[in-house]
Design brief:
Length: about 475
């Protein structure tokens, strides 16, 4: 049994479970991939067990025929000393032990033994997710927002996924896989050409021309064609630039295709303001001590600076809608900020303004958000808008109940992988209503201190997506 124990410790199973891979990125189609992968792992486990059973049965047959002493226990053979007085035989216990160790090692690599081995051979779904190479959690605001756009045309999403694979190929520090990059781009181009009519048919009538212009930008000389040229020249910098530009155009076209929500909030919250798409908020900041900001665009020290937040009403319509409504009412003008170890909190405890907001989280793979419910990352639940992104914007908890958000107090999350859990996920992942991300002025977040002020908050786009029922005005 000593050999079995040594093999079983090769891959620890009693580690915290969360749904990440080495790249730390999560697929938007997460739930389906989890089920598929869990099923595949179950079949792999069965195959591995069959292989082990066959190997043990063969060895026992050899024992019955005299090749191995029948009294020799197969698992205990590893502990037999090489000085055994048994008569010479074709299959020595040492060789048998090595073969069994190799078999168990392979089985362990394919399907880690559960904690209650040997009582159960099943692999819990969350553990299967931990080892899934398809699990990808967004690590930037741009990627998270792009993946949060509802799928209207499947070909558009397949194009996006094919091109996003190139981001991972570009991370390889030495030899780049330009052949795989070329295949990904050609696959995306083929999808765009073959499904052109359906792609453009999903664009609203009043946006047809803009949709056509975006489509041509994607497939034309400034898009996929230019990317193929950069790949042929093996220029990773140009590939990265072309890739970012093309994915931005794809996201724009997908947003045009999804002009509103595909669901209605629960009847309880029908009278709440809701954002039915995307909106952009500009926060003008000033230092409370009279010092200056340093901005990425240059120009020297500045007394005021602006950061922009993109709100995602697709994933958090009530939370983003409430925030937008408060911005228009001037709620955040003159509000001070308070900094913490990993967050910057709006120093506002509420004054009756705003709605009694339920916690609102959209799990990946689900059709609409969950309300008053947190997610359990260890059980494979990951939000479409993860907190584990630098510059995530979320509502603080209500002081009376954690299944409700504060009516008006929000915070910026300063994600730091060094202070995160397994796979780089924040320990509070799935516990707050994330409703947007800082997309411009991220460099300002690290410069903010307690006492700094939001001089003004302005809605610069998306007001047409805000629905404010009369009863909440």
């Amino acid at each position: 049994m000593s050999m079995l124990m040594s093999v079983a410790t090769i891959v620890p199973t009693s580690v915290p479970r969360c749904n990440v891979d080495v790249n730390g990125e999560l697929s938007a189609n997460y739930t389906a991939s989890v089920r598929k992968f869990s099923s595949r792992r179950s079949r792999t486990s069965f195959a591995a067990r069959s292989c082990i059973s066959a190997s043990v049965e063969e060895n026992m047959t050899n024992a019955a025929e005299g090749s191995v002493p029948a009294s020799q226990d197969v698992l205990a053979s590893s502990s037999v000393s090489s000085s055994s007085t048994a008569s010479p035989r074709p299959w020595s216990t040492k060789v048998l032990g090595s073969a069994l160790a190799a078999t168990l090692t392979l089985a362990q690599a394919l399907s880690p033994f559960p904690e209650n081995f040997p009582g159960s051979w099943s692999v819990p779904p969350a553990e299967a997710v931990l080892y899934s190479p398809d699990t990808k959690v967004p690590r930037s605001a741009e990627v998270a927002l792009r993946r949060a756009i509802p799928v209207v045309n499947p070909s558009m999403r397949k194009m996006q996924e094919s091109l996003e694979d190139i981001f991972y190929l570009l991370r390889i520090p030495q030899r780049k896989s330009y052949g795989s990059m070329e295949s990904d781009v050609k696959r995306a181009l083929q999808l765009a050409l073959e499904d052109k009519d359906a792609i453009l048919a999903a664009v609203p009538a009043d946006m047809k021309q803009k949709g056509l212009d975006l489509y041509n930008d994607i497939i034309g000389p400034r898009g996929l064609e230019k990317m193929l040229e950069a790949i042929a020249n093996k220029d990773p910098d140009k590939v990265s630039i072309r890739l970012a530009n093309t994915l931005e155009k794809i996201a724009e076209l997908e947003i045009i295709q999804a002009p509103g929500l595909a669901f209605l909030p629960p009847a309880t919250y029908q009278d709440y303001p809701r954002l039915t798409g995307r909106a952009t908020i500009a926060l003008k900041l000033e230092k409370g001590d009279g010092s200056s900001f340093t901005v990425a665009s240059g120009g020297g020290p500045q007394k005021t600076a602006v950061l922009e937040i993109v709100l995602d009403g697709y994933s958090a319509p009530l939370t983003a809608g409430n925030f937008s409504d408060l911005v228009l009412k001037g709620k955040y003008n003159g509000i001070k900020l308070r900094t913490g170890e990993q967050s910057i909190l709006c120093d506002d405890q509420g004054d009756g303004v705003g709605n009694t907001l339920p916690l609102e989280v959209l799990p990946a793979g689900e059709f609409q958000p969950l309300y008053q419910t947190t997610l359990n990352v260890q059980d494979g639940e990951i939000p479409v808008l993860p907190l584990s992104v630098y510059g995530a914007v979320a509502m603080a908890h209500n002081t009376a109940a954690e299944d409700y958000s504060s009516p008006s107090q929000f915070f910026f999350y300063l994600y730091d992988k060094r202070n995160a859990g397994l796979g780089g996920l924040a320990f509070d992942e799935g516990q707050f209503s994330v409703f947007g991300y800082v997309t411009k002025g991220k460099e300002l977040l690290s410069q903010l201190k307690t006492g700094d002020i939001i001089q003004s908050a302005t809605m610069i786009s998306g007001q047409d997506k805000l629905v404010v029922p009369n009863s909440s005005s």
